[in-house]
Design brief:
five-stranded mixed β-sheet, Ribosomal Protein S5, domain 2
Length: 335
């Protein structure tokens, strides 16, 4: 018995220091974008634009993660998580790092894209410079365009904002010719080639570029220790609220989640069941969920929380206006 006890103690001691290949996920804190510490707003605008003080709450939701490379996870913590109805235990999946984006970079990028989308919603341009970073081997631009070229115009349409790309490509079909004017080290160069299909019947040039924006305002987000792209849609909604004199929320508490792209599409995220639970704990009565997340929403909605399904920033904005007006009965849900 003495030997067995000693062996058991050694095994338990070993389990407290060895890496456990699991992640524990729980509802994380929510952050009202309009109410931070010491009376300051977590989301603020500066520059030559008018900004307004909205009422109500617009809450960004998070998932708290323990384990893996994020923080130590003990065997006791793992056992407690297995017994906790508000926690989820997932196997840790390790992906070799290949120079891709990090949670911090995704967090910053989501704010940048949200700013572009929010300003476009209000009819404000975000001047853009598009620098080519890669050219696909199957592109007809191989040998004509170069990495480092800055796109100036496509078929005569000056590319001054991201949305100018849509204007230039709207009339095109795969195989149509394009003339691209670029700045190549201070020298303007024009090249012509044919577009290719993207696999879904849409024309593309087969190039990759990095956009850099010159915003007419400075957006500041005062939220620490949070990463990833899932706050993009709420950032965009928050910026629109600050830019508009209308009081869209009218005192209502709305939480939500979802990525945002430069076309204003709201994309799916992970852990939405936990985010809804965190929103409910924070007192939110409404939750904006990406339409693509609806299968994970059904059956997991906390009592007292009404979920609205959205797929674009326009739908999300119309939703909070309807909620503030008390006309939310017809808003789409996840079934």
């Amino acid at each position: 018995m003495s030997i067995s006890g000693t062996v058991a103690s050694l095994l338990l001691g070993l389990l407290t220091i060895v890496h456990l290949p699991y992640l524990v996920e729980k509802p994380g804190p929510t952050f009202d974008l309009f109410d931070g510490e010491d009376g300051d707003t977590r989301l603020s605008l500066a520059g030559e634009v008018d900004s307004y003080d909205p009422s109500g709450e617009l809450r960004l939701t998070t998932v708290s993660v323990q384990g893996g490379t994020i923080s130590d996870l003990s065997i006791g913590g793992l056992i407690r998580a297995w017994l906790d109805p508000d926690a989820k235990v997932e196997p840790e999946i390790r992906v070799p790092y290949a120079g891709g984006s990090t949670a911090g970079a995704d967090w910053a990028t989501s704010q940048e894209m949200a700013t572009v989308v929010a300003l476009a919603h209000e009819g404000i341009d975000s001047p853009m410079m598009a620098t080519i970073t890669d050219i696909d081997a199957g592109s007809n631009a191989v040998g004509l365009l170069r990495v480092g070229d800055v796109i100036l115009a496509i078929n005569g349409t000056e590319i001054e904002t991201y949305y100018d790309l849509e204007v230039a490509f709207d009339p095109l079909e795969p195989g149509d010719p394009v003339t691209v004017e670029v700045d190549r080290g201070g020298r303007e160069v024009a090249v012509a080639f044919e577009t290719i299909a993207d696999g879904q019947g849409e024309p593309i040039m087969g190039i990759w570029f990095v956009p850099s924006f010159a915003f007419p305002l400075l957006v500041t987000v005062d939220i620490n220790d949070v990463g990833g792209p899932s706050g993009g849609a709420m950032f965009a909604l928050g910026i629109i609220n600050l830019l508009t004199p209308e009081d869209e929320l009218r005192g209502e508490s709305v939480a939500g989640t979802g990525t945002i792209d430069l076309e204003g599409n709201v994309g799916s995220i992970g852990g939405i069941d936990l985010k809804m639970k965190g929103a409910s704990w924070a007192g939110a009565e409404w939750f904006l969920a990406p339409e693509s997340n609806c299968p994970s929403v059904v059956g997991n909605i906390p009592d007292g929380l009404t979920v609205v399904s959205v797929s674009t920033i326009d739908e999300a904005y119309d939703a909070i206006v309807a909620i503030g007006d008390g006309n939310a009965d017809t808003l789409p849900s996840c079934g």
